[in-house]
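TA notes. Do not distribute before section.
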Amino acid sequence: MAPRLLILVVVAFLAAAAPARAELVQLDWAHLDHGMRLARQAGGTEVASELRLWSVPTSAVADLRRAGVVGLVRPDRLLTVESIAAQPTDPLVPLEWWRSAVGADRVDPPGPGKPVTVVDSGLDLTHPEFANRPNTTALNPQTTTEEEDDHGTEVSSVVGAPNNGVGLVGVYPNAVLRVWDASPLGFLNESEAIKGIIEAARLGPGVINLSFGGENNDPLLQQAVDHAVRTGSLVVAAAGNDGLDGSPPNFPAVYPHVLTVGATNSSGQVAPFSSLSPTVDLAAPGADIPVAEPLAQAASGYLLHANGTSFATPIVAGAAAWVWTVRPNLDNTQLFELMRRSATDIGPRGFDNATGWGLLDIPAALTFPTPRRDPQEPNDQPRDIEPHAVFANGTPPLTAPGRTSGSIAAHVDRSEDPVDLYRVWAPADRVLRARLTGSVALRLLARATKTRAVAIARHGLATYRNSSQSGSYLYLEVRPYRAREASYTVRVTVARR
């Protein structure tokens, strides 16, 4: 990753690099068919049907707005990778010090299993590490000749360079490796990254590696990440390389439900460049990492001293796929929790903003007790749970007309899962009770306002009487209370009084 990981809006550069500017347009649910026709007629291309997302020429956006088919418009921005420049050098003596640091040399990796999808610049499929590598799939055409096109090959080699007697060995050498080139014009851009995340999710649950980021939040990128999580994948992202520059927020790493990775060095300390954040979950080696380099950019085919959280991230992503292959009954929420809780604490006791829960420990992750599942994630906001908001089906309500009781056991975390939100049905002229256990705060919110509390839990119980003549849905909101994170159970019942 570059010294500053930025998602940039570079108007002059974009104008020179592409024949026409484009915007990312999310079409409105209510007029979807009509909107798709208009977007296609305007010369737009579909980015992700799951998100109703199109790339549309900027000149046509105003007409789509006037037609009333637009839900959200965002610029299609550039993305910058999370690595620090290094020079090619002799690859004959790989210096993979990181293998012993995370325990990769103490246990034998499995055969192919859960896939890792690298969404990045292209992979050099002619490189000796990849030319004959089994279970390697390019999900779209790969480009590796431009200056910024080396990153995807570097990251992919850390995940899965095979044990073939050539150069490097990745953390999971037999991994099912999939790659999506999000830089078809020589630079990473947001629409292509979103396409890659969505395509990885379409192929079924797996690990998705995102070694890029920036300081600008974008709801469309977050929706793509949320879609991947909702459909069962684990998203792993680089914390950022701004530790010496104030550690500004780095997206997508700071989004909830993203396994965020900081970097350490060969001394077992936090790398100075690694960004600090309460959303860091664990750390992995990210300094002086040997990586493969596209042959078009380095005749030797290797760099021996790559630096950045970009390279800590694929170590964790590959390790997570390894663990998931050995423990296939885990879901993505259990794998998320297991990877960080099994880490070796190397900073201040417990959680810290530099290393999260500690340094990746593969042997420990393989034997760590199975965490409890965390259902219905992500369910942080009304848009996550309402049908035809972000997700077509939303999430099932805990209670509904004709079903007057329901319960759920789940988990909340101030940084990674700050809110759990559920719909509950309050029948006319009935009393709804929500009983809870766990160190959490619970409120019942008016669905119309989404924020006005109609009841707050006291001593583990929230009570609401619907005195109107018609039933209605409320939101049941759960947050951590005092503790950083907590497991809880909630049971909802309805009675006459």
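Switch to the second chain here.
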Amino acid sequence: MGGKWLWLTFSVVGTLVCAAIWCFYDKNPLLVIGIVLDLVSIVLAYAFGWHLLERFARKAADRYAESVLGSFLAGTEWEEG
């Protein structure tokens, strides 16, 4: 979850660098491919980092909390029995 900002930052920087090199230095078609791939990476970073990963983390946290509560309750029943 903490890497989503890093992923987004590298994607934005990569897009800006490729666009700047293409505009000011060399009109190489490979730079256009780099720009497109970086833009796709920005969209994926947003979709995964701010939507899907939060859902997955929340589900995992809920399962963990239920497991801990179940273990605690099973432990208290064992001590009483």
